[in-house]
Amino acid sequence: MRPIAAVKLFFVIAICTIYLISFSQIGALAYETFFKETDRLPAGTMVGPISVANKTKLEALQAIEKRVNEWKANATIPVAYQEKKGEIPASLFTFQIEQSERQMVAGRPSPLLVQFDVQAFSKTIKKLLPSSLASSINLEKLQNDVTNIAASLQIPSQPLDLAAYVSRSNETMQPVSAATLKLGKRPAPLLEWISANPTIEIKGKSIFSLAEYVKETSGSLSSEEMSMIASAVYQTILPTNFTVLERHTSRELPDGITIGYEAKVDGGNRDLQFYNPNTTAYTLKFRVEKNRLHVTLFGLPFAYKYVVKVGDIEYFKPRTVVQYSPLLRPGERQLKQSGKRGMLVKVKRETYDENHLVHVETIAEDFYPPSYNIELRGLELGDSNSDVNETPSSSEQSTEDEKQTDNESKNDEQPKEKQDENNGQSEEKQSEKETPSTTNDSSGQQKGHDHEKQG
Predict the structure, then answer these.
(1) Which domain covers residue 105, as residue numbers?
(2) Is the terminal CB of the chain with fewer CB neighbours within 10 Å at N or C?
(3) Residue ranges under compositional bias (Basic and acidic residues) (predicted)?
(4) Which pTM was predicted?
């Protein structure tokens, strides 16, 4: 009996052992199947703009590295100062991928760590900014904004405006252009208006209208007074990157205004309008001293240097209109009206990057038609016909006057048709030396002497 009992006991112990081992193995497998726990990251886990939810740490590291490499392969951050443009290459950014992965928090967003080489970028800054502004830029703010763009893996659609990082001070807001105009009789309303409006702000990315501004400031200025202000302002903004949208001239050049710089405003159909393409505002300042109106433009220095050149003046000799009068004796002549020569001049603006000529554009072609000489003659006995080259009556003169095209037109209208019309009338064309050019130097003062009215 004892052997049989021992065998039974052995089988019981073996079965229990097999059961216990099998249960532990099967139970662990079942628990892993139905109550599985893994090292995958929960929902809401992000590194910068990259979602790593439901990924292992290794998979998260690989996903971050892939997105960063894609961004570096395609991305550049454009930067600009006025017309000058540059870019920040992706090679200046160092992404700390492993450190970003180690610092990520499960279920929460965490930053993508990146470093930006500001010192290398300073070379690009020096190429874009005027030398006077290189030390005035806020590099710390620029570094933070550029780093944030890279950390979010963005590609900006618009250039980063460097003017926004330049501190505003007396050193940076400099006189960038200036002009002077003789006032002549110094009309009281004009002086009162200048005293009440010593400065005018030209906002960035905006159109300025002188006629509207005078109207808004309740100015009761005559057309002549508004034209004096307009001409001084026009001469001031020419050596800048401002765009002239509307500008008119008279049929005859007013006294005290240099040819090429007239701007006629009458508060009605004629106005001076221009556009400030920069993101920053500029200020016009007026000052009257020794019977002269001084206008200065203050603001950030321009990226380029602008030089205005008034070309050679073409003169058109006036025709003589003959009128016969019964009050004069035969053969007697009398000058009733002395005519004036017509003038045509081209105004150009040259753009320089340091000493390198970048661009030349024609700003305007100003034409002032000639006025006739009117001569009275006595009737010849038995002679009813006039000379072929003479205009016999005032009625024919008025017909000729109608052929003269009104020169009070917008700045973009070309007077070539007027020139062709008067070529047959002119008996000579003269050219004078090119008048001194106007430029905006570092102090904002225009170089060259005032041009005096010629002829």
Answers:
(1) 46-165
(2) N
(3) 400-435
(4) 0.73
